[in-house]
Amino acid sequence: MEYDVLVVGAGAAGLMTAIVAGGRGKRVLVVDHANRAGKKILMSGGGRCNFTNTATTPANFLSANPHFCKSALARYTPWDFIAMVDKHRIAWHEKSPGQLFCDDSSKQIVRMLLDECAAAGVRVEINCAVSRLRATETGFGGDTPLGHVRAASVVVATGGLSIPSLGATGFGYELAKQFGHAVLPLRAGLVPLTLSGKHQERFDGLAGVALPVEAAANDASFRDALLFTHRGLSGPAILQISSYWEPGTDLRVDLLPGMDAAEALLEGRAERPLAELKTVLAGLLPRRLAERLCEIWLPNRPMRQYRDAELRDIGAQLASWPVVASGTEGYRTAEVTLGGVDTDEVSSSTMMSKRQPSLYFVGEVLDVTGHLGGYNFQWAWASGNAAGLAV
C-alpha cells in the first residue's frame, strides 16, 4: 500500500492534518490502534466538546519555547474552525467567555471530522497499529494489520499519556526518540491535586464543597472554582494551576477573591458584634468550610472580642491560604500531558522534524500544552492545519 501521507493517530490533530492534506490532493492514510476515532474528543467537555476558545493567544500555552506556537495559531484561528462547524450545521453555544461547546453532543465533532476526511478521499483505519516504522530512500515504511505501508511523509499525531483508559500510550515519544528527537520531561497537567496525612485529615468530610477562589503558584494564578474531593482538590482553578505546580512548590489559594477579606471581617464585627467568627465567615464562604476553618486554624469567638489587628491577620490568611498538596491524581484523570517532543527540533511553520525529513509532529505529542477551556483543541486544529499544508 502506497500513500503520500501516513498519519499515526486519529485524534483531533491527526484528523485535521488528514483533512487539509487530503484537500490538497494527497493520498492519506490515518491509522489508530484504538477501537474508535477521536475518543478524547468524545469524552471532552462532559460529552459536549469544548472545541475551541475564541480568546486563544500564545499566552494560553506552556512550552519550553513559548514562541513556537505563534505561527500555527496565527494561520488557523478559532473562527476558521467555527466556520467548519457552522458548515456542518452543528449548533454551539458559549458557556464561559470564549469557551465554545456543542449544544448536543461531541459525537457531532467527530462525525464532522470523519465526513471531511471522506470528502477529501482520506482513508481512516481504526484497530490498526503501526509497527517497525523505518525511514527509506523514498520516505517511510511500516507494518500494519492491513499489510506493509509505504508513505512519502509520516505525521505523528499520537497525543500524550493522559487518560490511558482511552488508549493513550507513549508511542509517539518512542517514535520521536527513534528518529533522534529529544523528549522533554513528561508529567500530568490539568489534573486534580491530592492531599495526604494531616493535610487530608483536616479537610475530611468536605468532599463536594465548592467555592470561587484564586489559586497561585510559580507566578501563575487562575480565578475559578475549587472543589473539595475525597482525595484532595479539584475544580477548574486547581486544574489550571496544576500545570504550574510541582511537589515542593508554594501553592496559595485566595478563598475570597475580589474581596478585601479583612475589611469584610471588620464590617462583620460592626454589624454583628455578638456573632461568632464562624457564623460571619459562613456568610462569606460555604458553611461547612467556614466551620472547619474555625475548628482547626482560626480562633472562634464573638466578633466583638477581636481587635482590628487580629481580624486583619485572619483576612490575610484567607487571602493567601497555603495548600500543601502531596501530588496529583496522575495521568489517569489528567486532561493533558506537559512536556513532549522538543520544539527546538521542529519547524514552527510546517511542524516538520529538523532531524528527519518528511517526519511531522502535531498536537499534544509536542511540548505545547494549553490552559483549560478549549485551547488544546485549538492547538490540535492549528498544528494539524500547518502540517496538512506542508506534507
Automatic annotation (TrEMBL):
Residues 4-388 form the RsdA/BaiN/AoA(So)-like Rossmann fold-like domain. InterPro entries: BaiN-like (IPR004792), BaiN-like_dom_sf (IPR023166), FAD/NAD-bd_sf (IPR036188), RsdA/BaiN/AoA(So)-like_dom (IPR055178), RsdA/BaiN/AoA(So)_Rossmann (IPR057661). Pfam families: HI0933_like (PF03486), HI0933_like_1st (PF22780). Residues 187-336 form the RsdA/BaiN/AoA(So)-like insert domain. Its cofactor is FAD. Keywords: FAD, Flavoprotein. The keyword Flavoprotein applies. This is Aminoacetone oxidase family FAD-binding enzyme. It comes from Luteibacter rhizovicinus DSM 16549.
